[in-house]
């Protein structure tokens, strides 16, 4: 949606030009992840994408905000990392289908609550044996920090009901002041 694009562009424009840190969950899980192409969905300025590119993955980052992606590209250039950036609105299904023509061994979402429909679409973009990782705020984050409830996962929200994906890991965890739900799915085909 255009309003999201404008809001996020403004937020990234106002942010100091410092590199984002990778969320802990992706580092914790990294030892046993499939290798190859990685897609960072709602990548922002690259917290996840930059980290996987450093590990040698072939990374694509996707976000609605061109300002976020240009920050990401700048950070990647500083380290001579190659990251393919796609400026796509996740709510626009036809743009998604046109923009995502490859399959990926790894798909990541951090600090973004996907719809069930989006998760199932992303599941269909996994290569055989591919995995999808999600780490984002849960309802406790709303209760403790006043973070908007509509962006928070309810307990076990996606544990059993995502077509095409088999949940192999789920946990609710507190990291500092953040209350997170972490998921890891395996492609079931
Ligand atoms: C809280 S930030 C998280 C960024 C990054 N994943 C991280 O962990 O630092 C949420 C991101 O979702 C992106 N976003 C919000 N709505 C979107 C949409 N409809 N399509 C694509 N990206 C969207 C925003 O531009 C922003 O970069």
In brief, what are we looking at here?
This protein has 189 residues and is α/β, with parallel strands linked by helices. Helices cover 33% and strands 30% of the residues. It has helices spanning 2-14, 24-29, 47-54, 66-78, 93-99, 116-123, 139-145, and strands spanning 37-41, 58-63, 83-87, 104-110, 126-137, 165-175, 178-187.
Any overview of this molecule?
- The chain is an alpha/beta fold.
- The chain has one domain: Rossmann fold, CATH 3.40.50.150.
- Helix content is 33%, strand content 30%.
- The protein is built from seven helices and seven strands.
- The chain has helices at 2-14, 24-29, 47-54, 66-78, 93-99, 116-123, 139-145; strands spanning 37-41, 58-63, 83-87, 104-110, 126-137, 165-175, 178-187.
- It has a seven-stranded mixed sheet with strand order 3-2-1-4-5-7-6, sandwiched between helices.
- The protein is globular.
- The mean pLDDT is 96.
- S-adenosylmethionine (SAM) is lined by residues 4, 8, 20, 23, 42-44, 47-48, 63-65, 68, 89-91, 110-112.
Overall shape: it is globular
Please tally the helical runs, counting DSSP H or I stretches of 4 or more residues. Answer: 7
**Structural category:** alpha/beta
| Helical content band | 25-40%
Broad CATH class: Alpha Beta
Task: Give the CATH architecture.
Answer: 3-Layer(aba) Sandwich
Which runs of at least 5 residues are low in confidence (pLDDT < 50)? none
| End-to-end separation | 32 Å
Tally of DSSP β-strands: 7
Strand content: 25-35%
Give the biggest beta sheet: 7 strands, mixed
**So, the CATH homologous superfamily?**
Vaccinia Virus protein VP39
Average predicted confidence as pLDDT: 96
Radius of gyration: 16 Å
Indicate how many domains the architecture comprises.
Answer: 1
CATH fold group: Rossmann fold
Bound molecules: S-adenosylmethionine
Placed side by side, the strands forming the largest sheet appear as: 3-2-1-4-5-7-6
> Which sequence of SSEs, written as H and E, runs from N to C?
HHEHEHEHEHEHEE
